[in-house]
Amino acid sequence: MHFFFKKTSVIAGIEPLLAFKDVPSSERTNLFISKLSLCCVVFDFTDPSKNVHEKELKRATLLELLEFVSENPLKFTEPLIQASCKMCSINLFRVFPPNSHCSRARSPTENESNENEPAFEPAWAHLQIVYDFLLKFVTSSSLETKIAKKYINHSFISKIIDLFDSEDPRERDCLKAILHRIYGKFMIHRPFIRKCMSNVFYRFVFEMEKHNGIAELLEIFGSVVTGFALPLKEEHKIFFWRALLPLHRPKSLRVYFQQLAYCVTQFVEKEPMLASGVIMGLLRCWPITNSQKEAIFLGEVEEILEVISMSEFQKIMVPLFSRIKSCITSYHFQVAERALFLWNNDQIVNLISHNHQVILPVIIPALEINAQSHWNQAVLNLTLNVRKILTEMDDTLTSSCICNFREEQEKSNLVAEKRRQVWEHLENTASLQPFAENTAVFW
Predict the structure, then answer these.
(1) pLDDT < 70 regions, the chain
(2) Which segments of 149-233 does DSSP mark as H helices, in order?
(3) Which candidate, 291, 211, 296, places its Cα nearest to that of 253?
(4) 301-326 pLDDT tens trace
(5) Which pTM value belongs to this model?
(6) C-alpha atoms less than 13 angstroms from C-alpha of 399 in its C-beta half-sphere
(7) What is each CA distance from 301 to 158, 269, 317, 324, in whole angstroms?
(8) Would you list the domain boundaries of the chain?
């Protein structure tokens, strides 16, 4: 037998390589602890040729533990809980290499390449089984939280959340399931879990701008929000304003946008008075120089407008549609299309219809500009469709707005022509006037 197994062979008075079926029922708890202790040895997987036999034996032992927990109604006593948490901690908790956090030194092209090609954990053959074991352990009906909370404590949970920065999407997926179950089972730890998640978001937005698990953490939080009681606690509102909304700022928004938008929408549905503040927050950090993010913002605006109340909508409709007006005339066709697609939403059309006296004068000039000069045929077709909707909404006001726009356009053209003529006259005069010998010329 190899030194690894000699060193850890007999724990709790029983040989760990024995099968559970080969020992009496009274000894199975001791055998379980013995096998857990044997699995506390961690191997180096960066060199596949090292400890091949030992790695396979450990993997087989982990599978035995997982099978035993899955198929037997095991009563988790305190020694079992302690040994299980110790084994999981030793195998899972580790510090990621520094190159996981060097995005500021990378070019945008390198960053995009790294996002498309996730790094897979070399030790996954063992880690996957440990994660499966931990999930079975946490969800076991025989696990008493009064005892388990001593070991699944703040330190344990904090390290679980740190692991969300893993570059391996398989690991983050396992962590998502485990943290969600811990949140559901250990009510005493819920405020701490939310605080840890807030801290991750703060560091991501204001310090690092690099974290691999933001989407997964937001997905967990999205399900948490649905369980919030009404009215919302002040703690939850603070989290919303200080942790969630600032997540719209980073350039990597597209990676976690769907999960973030879901969380925001859930909050707005719970507390409708948040809607106008959310829209104004989006307008304040609107990505006017990033067309991809601009299209994403328009998508989130649509989701919020689907659940906004009329009174909240009226608070923000002028600044909002002033921004939408700019998006409609964008030369980036995807931004223009996304803005015009808002009129495909019946709820939004209804909001506009009830406030068309204010909104039409803002929007119609943008539609006329597109109709006259936009380069993209799809945008042009959408523009004409939207103009038709507004005409059906209020033909008189639409015609009036179009006339006003054309009058302003004529005035603007006259001013531009007059300015051109003045400059042409000055250029002609300058070309005919000879320079005096002592005239200083400044360049």
Answers:
(1) 1-16, 99-116, 433-443
(2) 154-162, 169-185, 190-203, 214-225
(3) 296
(4) 999 999 999 999 999 999 999 999 99
(5) 0.84
(6) 4
(7) 34, 14, 12, 10
(8) 1-95+123-152, 157-266
